[in-house]
Structure prediction request, 352 residues.
Amino acid sequence: MSVRIADDTRPPRHLSPRVPPRFDLSLSENPFPPLPSVLRAVHMTLAQANRYPEFLPRRLPTLIAQHVGVRADQVVVGSGATGVAMQILQSLVPPGAEIVYGAPTFDGYPIMCEMTGVAAVPVPLDTAGKQDLRAMLRVIDKRTALVVVCRPHNPTGTVIPADELKAFLSSVPARVPVLLDEAYVEFLGAAEFADPLALIGKYPNLLVLRTFSKAYGLAGLRIGYAFGRTELIARVSKLQLPFGVSAAAVAAVAASYAAEPELTARTLRITEARDALRGALLARGIAVPESHANFLYLPGPGIATALRRAGIAAKCYPDGSARVAVGDPDADRTVLQALTPIRHNRNHRTVT
Prediction:
């Protein structure tokens, strides 16, 4: 499927505050609340909310390191993946230097570039809605201080094959750090998974960024982390905010890891709902690209308007396309009902 991607780095568009949306699907959130065991663990920490958390986080990096399979000094944590990404920009990218990324992308990257005085170098996605790794390599020069690769990609949900990713990493100059954004990694199938330990073992300039906001359903607690070689993590950790990780975050992560089977089942439920909704939309002639995340990209003029009229807040794009979170049965049905009257040519080839 030939795809045209239009960049839009504006924050998500919501309905008027006077008319709250029936469903807010704009931020690709998990539709389900934290598991009961996680809620209990967080609630227990509130009894000591008068006490400060650790001055610098030790428990949370240790928990994550044990789960991932690295040492604690190979992990840096922060306020969501966005907070960690900001630490990475501030510690590795001097003002005036350049960051290369596929565009459109997660809204946070262009916003953080503007905040830190860094020059953004957006590279259009290819015709399949994937990051154009060859084009990204061509724009890397002496001014490049960071390259961002999202896997799965936001907003299209596409995935760069593991062998293409490895070839790309081998071609990036060793002096240039690469941030592999895996915010949606838990939604990948086994065939798409790329071993992060093998990657950081081979590529010392690689940082892997993850979050507890999506699959784990803890967006409100703001828990993110990155891992990589000790030398690179040490540079990022110099900007670790004192008292920046709450006791509730530590408790939530520990309880979430203990409830891994339940969370895996919940993730499977979301991906099955995603695929079912995509199938139904394809049957109606809407050329929805295959997604490997917890959202669907809905291409074509009139999509955003139809969703808005149905009371659905979505991430909207200039040509009328939209991205919606999936997994809530009522919301999925409403999306399908809202788009049923739309008739697109089955060979529609525009994704924006």
